[in-house]
Amino acid sequence: MLIYIAGSGAMGCRFGKQLHEAGNDVILLDKWEDHIQAIRENGLKVSGDEEKVVNIPIMRPEEAKEQADLVILFTKAMQLPDMLEAIQDVIGPDTQVLCLLNGLGHQEVISKYVPEKNIIMGVTVWTAQLQGPGHVYLASTGSINIQSLNPDGQDKGKEIADVLSKANLNAIYDEDVIPSIWRKACVNGTMNSNCALLDCKIGELFASEDGLTIVHEIIHEFVVVGQAEGVALNEEEITDYVMQTSKSAAHHYPSMHQDLVQNNRYTEIDFINGAVSRLGRNHDIATPYCDLITQLIHAKEDVLIGKK
Ligand SMILES: NC(=O)C1=CN([C@@H]2O[C@H](COP(=O)(O)OP(=O)(O)OC[C@H]3O[C@@H](n4cnc5c(N)ncnc54)[C@H](OP(=O)(O)O)[C@@H]3O)[C@@H](O)[C@H]2O)C=CC1
Ligand SMILES: CC(C)(CO)C(=O)C(=O)O
């Protein structure tokens, strides 16, 4: 199967490596010149659970020309439209396009470039971290839930789940993936933004009484807005999931902390808390916590990165 990984940062490298090792023709796509050069010259360096070098092709998105069987989207959310624009040549009438980005609202963006029957939405709890250009750190295990957006795509969606599982990525075909996407967005909406603002680890946020109050208010806003969008969300179940995740990830700085505080990079806030604020406005639902947190993250982007 010819698979392009559209956005080959940390997660793209993980998925690309595992699918390549399972015997697929995998091509990584990315715009970061130093990363492309490092992988071309030295291969993809992997550390963590295993130490190895994997020789895997990589190119700039606009250099990809052959129509793919599968494209896996793994950009940061704000890079998604540019990536989809750049890879139009590889998206043929039967190319399946799988989105595993964190956050909300990506299906509307993808629908502008891909027929709905070929769009597969998903969510993953695999993790990965770039150590530098051409070097990815991969540890522990994970899983993926995916579902075709349109019932006509269901057989293809199940085939793709099978391809991912053969690469040990533990994919299941989920008959209702949208609540799982919201649940993960809620984990990110409580932990990522607050830890980036407070410059703390997840365990430190949850050990603070006021921190915990903010977490519960955010969960409530996600649930009420999600329900207004027609997504079946249960506040108690989501709260349990967030609390459990906060325990298993207590010693971690979330990825938004790594992006903004550690590396001074723009964040996905508009697709997490910012998305809930936007959708809340459409339904006349007040979302004061998500509104303020989104503004504070943008202000911190201004302070640390400079005026956009
Ligand atoms: N990392 C994780 O553990 C998880 C991430 N996700 C989600 O997956 C998606 C992709 O995330 P992830 O793989 O972590 O993203 P990364 O930050 O590792 O990479 C995303 C893109 O950013 C650019 N980039 C990254 N680092 C640099 C750098 N130092 N200098 C210049 N450019 C750089 C590259 O794109 P370009 O050069 O084109 O700008 C790259 O394709 C996101 O939606 C994320 O929320 C989901 C689950 C877990
Ligand atoms: C660690 C975790 C689960 C918490 O937000 C995460 O998803 C991230 O860092 O992006």
UniProtKB/TrEMBL annotation:
Keywords: NADP, Oxidoreductase, Pantothenate biosynthesis. One of its GO terms (cellular component) is cytoplasm. It catalyses: (R)-pantoate + NADP(+) = 2-dehydropantoate + NADPH + H(+). GO terms for molecular function: 2-dehydropantoate 2-reductase activity; NADP binding. Residues 3-150 form the Ketopantoate reductase N-terminal domain. Pathway: Cofactor biosynthesis; (R)-pantothenate biosynthesis; (R)-pantoate from 3-methyl-2-oxobutanoate: step 2/2. It is an enzyme of class 1 (oxidoreductase). Catalyzes the NADPH-dependent reduction of ketopantoate into pantoic acid. This is 2-dehydropantoate 2-reductase.
